[in-house]
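Worked problem 6 (solution included).
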Amino acid sequence: MHEDAVRFLSQPVEAQPGSPLRVAVYSRIAEAIRNNLLQPGSMLPTETELGTDMKVSRTVVREALMLLEEDGLIRARRGVGRFVSDTLPRIGIERIRPFEEVLGGPGHQVQIKRIQVEKQPASEFVAPGVGVEPGSDVWLWESVLIRDGEPIAHLQENISALPVSFAGGAAAPLEITDDGGTTLLTALNKAAGRGLGPGECQIGLSQVGPSRAKLLDLRASDPVLVLTQYARHANRPFYLAKCLIADRAGHLSVMQSLQS
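Solution. The predicted structure is:
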């Protein structure tokens, strides 16, 4: 690993108020990747080495690396190690739906259990997804989705806390009432009058990890499907969500349309 990367990663890591330490570790490594201190295709130090350099526990490092892999910034090669992705994730233009619609359907009612609604600094992953600089204020809505009495998904949704303009009006801070019964995307669609978009939904696989396992009544090593949603407003990144779905959720439907 290059000396500049070692020096950058070895700076003290501190969690922001209301944000766990693993997010600070995630942001530090992600920033090193985005700034090319950790170059595409290069091998990352081990969990133990990163923990020693960053003065955090191996468990915190492992959870941060899981998040980096979920978000497409790194790739694991079994028996070899973890590597920076050759190509970093991009924001595309596909159609999206609120997750209560994605996971619901005939005969199934999805309920929203709100975990928290909080304003916090944007991480290196969240910032480009909502169109702000890292460290800028963003809103986080964290929820567990429950279907037929069982928790089936953990959802984190983010939007910028900066003023925004809808329907050609003057820019103003968003005022969205949290009634506890919908996802943020559904609330945004109501506030905007029409659906946001275009957007994209990326699909991947991961392990749930210890903190989210408790919310979903799973083991930390259990596999989950990771759906990452982006949506744009006025042709700018605006909304970002990551949803971890347990296998008990069963089959999902994917909406597609033909382009002429």
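Discussion: The two ends are 48 Å apart (CA to CA).
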